[in-house]
């Protein structure tokens, strides 16, 4: 497991044993033919292969971050859950750093904690409208926010 072939997906080249969640890091940065830049963040809530979020929690965090984050940034293109349920990818238009993105994420999570419903948690607007937990999403957001000072430290020690 030490010598992995180089893979296409950036996170497949990340040794998930070495990271220290929670953290926020740039997973990818792409310059488009016209010169515009896209920045993709790895927003990791739980320690890979040690802990994960419940499915309803991930789903509600996805809805809430996708909706609330757009109140804090015009640059949000996508907020998507990781299949391993340990975090999210956030894709932004423009050149961003983890430091410049952190206040946007923090404001988003504060809104989320203060919210009284999960947006679009119904059969018209979602593919599994019953699969949500406001309390679970808020608890996970609170725990992640409580460790705000650690977001910048991606790897252990
Ligand atoms: Zn949904």
Automatic annotation (TrEMBL):
<keyword id="KW-0479">Metal-binding</keyword>
<comment type="subunit">
    <text>Homodimer.</text>
</comment>
<dbReference type="GO" id="GO:0043768">
    <property type="term" value="F:S-ribosylhomocysteine lyase activity"/>
</dbReference>
<comment type="similarity">
    <text>Belongs to the LuxS family.</text>
</comment>
<protein>
    <recommendedName>
        <fullName>S-ribosylhomocysteine lyase</fullName>
        <ecNumber>4.4.1.21</ecNumber>
    </recommendedName>
</protein>
<keyword id="KW-0071">Autoinducer synthesis</keyword>
<keyword id="KW-0408">Iron</keyword>
<dbReference type="Pfam" id="PF02664">
    <property type="entry name" value="LuxS"/>
</dbReference>
<dbReference type="GO" id="GO:0005506">
    <property type="term" value="F:iron ion binding"/>
</dbReference>
<comment type="function">
    <text>Involved in the synthesis of autoinducer 2 (AI-2) which is secreted by bacteria and is used to communicate both the cell density and the metabolic potential of the environment. The regulation of gene expression in response to changes in cell density is called quorum sensing. Catalyzes the transformation of S-ribosylhomocysteine (RHC) to homocysteine (HC) and 4,5-dihydroxy-2,3-pentadione (DPD).</text>
</comment>
<feature type="binding site">
    <location>
        <position position="63"/>
    </location>
    <ligand>
        <name>Fe cation</name>
    </ligand>
</feature>
<dbReference type="InterPro" id="IPR037005">
    <property type="entry name" value="LuxS_sf"/>
</dbReference>
<keyword id="KW-0673">Quorum sensing</keyword>
<feature type="binding site">
    <location>
        <position position="59"/>
    </location>
    <ligand>
        <name>Fe cation</name>
    </ligand>
</feature>
<dbReference type="InterPro" id="IPR011249">
    <property type="entry name" value="Metalloenz_LuxS/M16"/>
</dbReference>
<keyword id="KW-0456">Lyase</keyword>
<dbReference type="GO" id="GO:0009372">
    <property type="term" value="P:quorum sensing"/>
</dbReference>
<feature type="binding site">
    <location>
        <position position="126"/>
    </location>
    <ligand>
        <name>Fe cation</name>
    </ligand>
</feature>
<dbReference type="InterPro" id="IPR003815">
    <property type="entry name" value="S-ribosylhomocysteinase"/>
</dbReference>
């Amino acid at each position: 497991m030490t010598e992995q072939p180089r893979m296409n997906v950036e996170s497949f080249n990340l040794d998930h044993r070495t990271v220290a969640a929670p953290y926020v890091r740039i997973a990818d940065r792409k310059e488009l033919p016209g010169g515009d830049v896209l920045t993709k963040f790895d927003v990791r809530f739980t320690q890979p292969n040690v802990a994960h979020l419940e499915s309803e929690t991930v789903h509600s965090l996805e809805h809430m971050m996708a909706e609330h984050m757009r109140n804090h940034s015009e640059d949000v293109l996508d907020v998507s859950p990781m299949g391993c349920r340990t975090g999210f990818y956030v894709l932004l238009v423009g050149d961003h750093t983890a430091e410049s993105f952190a206040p946007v994420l923090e404001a988003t999570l504060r809104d989320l904690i203060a919210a009284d419903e999960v947006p679009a948690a119904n059969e018209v607007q979602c593919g599994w409208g019953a699969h949500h937990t406001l309390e679970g999403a808020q608890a996970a957001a609170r725990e992640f926010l409580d460790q705000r000072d650690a977001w910048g430290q991606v790897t252990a020690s």
